[in-house]
Structures are given as structure tokens and as C-alpha cells.
Amino acid sequence: MLLRTLGTAAGGGVPQWNCACPGCTGARRHPDRRRRHDSLAVLSEGAATWCLVNAGPDTAEQIEAHPELRPGSGQRRTPVVRIILTDAELDHTLGLLRLREAEHLEIFATRPVREALRERLGLDHVLTPYTTATWRDLPLPGMAPATEVAGLRISAIPLSTKRPRYACDAPVDDCWVVAVRIEDPGHRTTALYAPALATWSDAFEKAVAEADCVFLDGTFWDNEEPRHTGISGRTATSMGHLPVAGAEGTAERLAHVAARCLYTHLNNTNPLVDPTAPQHAQLAALGLEVAQDGMLISL
Ligand code: MLT
Ligand code: MN
Ligand code: ZN
Q1: Ligand 2 center–CA 56 separation, angstroms
Q2: Tell me, what DSSP letter sits at residue 36?
Q3: Cβ(275)–Cβ(281) under 8 Å?
Q4: How many angstroms separate the alpha carbon of residue 54 from the centre of ligand 3?
Q5: Any idea where the domains of the chain sit in the sequence?
């Protein structure tokens, strides 16, 4: 399979329209530092079709930026767009509205995510005059077999009960946030996509050990970053994001993993948005990477 990183930023992107922090200012000065909302296109070789993991507010520009995602010549429209969701957060789902020109949308999500999007955001109501949408279940390992999509097998590993702010009173469920597991049975390769990791569970540990490539939550460098930068009175972990570094950090764990590991979903406060920051050398010493927009990875 081929993986194309369409975006690697957390909510707001880099730069964020209403922010003049060092990360956002640096990205305005150096356009190569700009990052769009995290999203991954997955292409199954031979199947001539692709799926998106997450669809943020800039999804249409992200698709248009890559020729392999554009409609084939003579094709008036991309017929079906398949979208797999890690959660119901706005930075991962607002793109569903932007994809309304598709003839058909096929959306894979866990039950609480589906219900939030359909009932709270009113997506069925809003999309019906524009396109048809099929909502499909994202199966959990051990509960149901992986779903076959365009030559790939997809499933979800539950990560957290964190609900989006617009659904903060919705029922508690451990599938509000999941890691998406994508397996290419032909090549026997697996990718894991987890842009919001609140806790490192045994199930997640197993999924990481089985993967060839892991995209992981790189929202915050350390646990105090949201407080130090003044964006929140809370720590990274209490916001549902394990930081990269420090005692709670994921870097030390990932350093022992066989898979290629890349951090994504970077917030504009994260020092890693500056390519000259010394934190890059710390990660490189552990064999870890920071994802960039537009990378192409073949598994
Ligand atoms: C998150 O990643 O924590 C959410 O996207 C935050 C938000 O946009 O409110
Ligand atoms: Mn987010
Ligand atoms: Zn900023």
C-alpha cells in the first residue's frame, strides 16, 4: 500500500488564522513550515482506488495537491470517496461537508462517532440534498472481522472516552477515539494511525508491535506545553494527548518499536513545527521521525 500524508497539524493548522505565536509566525515567514490538518490518503496498489483517514477543513485542497488523488481523465467526478475516521473532532470531520460534490461518500466510524456526526452535527440532514452517504461500522479487533475496503482490511483499536466539546454530554464510550489499523493482505503489511492518544493501553501496545508504520499523536512536545504557552490551563494528558517527551511521553516507548514511527497532529505551540529546533535531534537519536505534509510511504 501507499500512504500519502495530506496534512500533519492539529486543530487550527500551522499557521492558525487567529494566532501569532512563534510557530504560526515562523510558518508565515517560511511557507515550507506550513502544515494542514492531519489526514492520510491510503492507496491500495492495483486496486486503483484510495481512502482517506480523517477529513479536515482543508481536505479538498489536500486532495487536489496530489495528482494520484484527482479524478482520472474523462472521469467527470471522483465517483466514491471513502473516509475512515479516528474520532468525531471537528479538525478530523469538517471535511465531510467539503466533500459534498462526490457522487457518494462511504464513511467508516465507530458507533459514538457516527451518532455524534449524524445526530449532533446533523450531517445526514445537511448532506442529503448534495450527495448520498453510507455509514459503515469500523470493527474492533476480537468483536468483528476487519472490514474489507478496496483491497485493504481496516479495523479500530479503542483509545479513549474523550468526546468532542460539541458532544460533551453524550454517553461515555471507549470508542470515541480510536487508532485506525490498515492492513494490506497482499503485501502482509500494516499501518497504524493514531493522531489522538490519551493512554497507552495493552491493546495499543500490541497493535504497535504488529505494525510496519505508526503515525502517532505529536500534538504537544511535553505535558506542560499547553500551560506554558498559555493556550489552556490544562496539561497535555488532561486534554487527551500524551506528550512526545518527558515522563508521560511516548518517545521512549516508540524508541523500542520495530516499526517506522512518525509523529503527526502537531499543534502550532509544539517546538517541532520549527525545523531548526533542537528537539528534532533528540527524536532522531531515538530513531523517530516527525511527519511532513506530502510524504509518500510505500509499505
Ligand atoms: C483535539 O485534538 O484535542 C481536538 O481537536 C481539540 C479541539 O479542536 O477542540
Ligand atoms: Mn485535534
Ligand atoms: Zn500559533
Answers
A1: 10
A2: P
A3: no
A4: 22
A5: 2-294
